[in-house]
MarR family transcriptional regulator (Streptomyces roseirectus), 138 residues
Amino acid sequence: MAANATATALEDRWRDILAAHARTLCEIDRALHPHGLGASDFEVLDLLAAENPQAGDQCRVQNLVGRVHLSQSALSRLIGRLEKDGLVERTVCAEDRRGVWVSLTGKGRALHARVLPLQRAALERSLGQVPGQALGQG
C-alpha cells in the first residue's frame, strides 16, 4: 500500500512539473510571438548571448544540443530559421569540418536585448509565485 502511495505521489509531482513547464512555455510564447519568436527560438538566442557576450564570438552548435531540449535535427532546423531571419550566422569549423559554429548577428543581439525583459517577465508570472513555496526553494 505504501509503495502505491509513493508511486502516486511521484506521478503527481511529475505531472505538476509537466504542467508548470507547459504553462511557462505558453506564457513565453505569448509574450514573444509579436516579435516573431517562440520560446525555443529565444532559448537559443539567450544561450548564444550568454556564451558569446561580445559581437563576433562563436559557439559550437554541439554545445547547444543538450541545453535547449530539442533533438539535434530540430535544433539544426531552428538555427536554419534563425539564420534565414538574419538573427544568427553559421560557419564551418576550420579545425573540424564536421563542426559548425553559430553566432549572433547584430540584428539577433538587438532582438535578444529587446525581448529579454519580456521573457523574464513571463518567467516571473509563471514561476515567480509557486503556491506554498518561496522562490528558490525546492
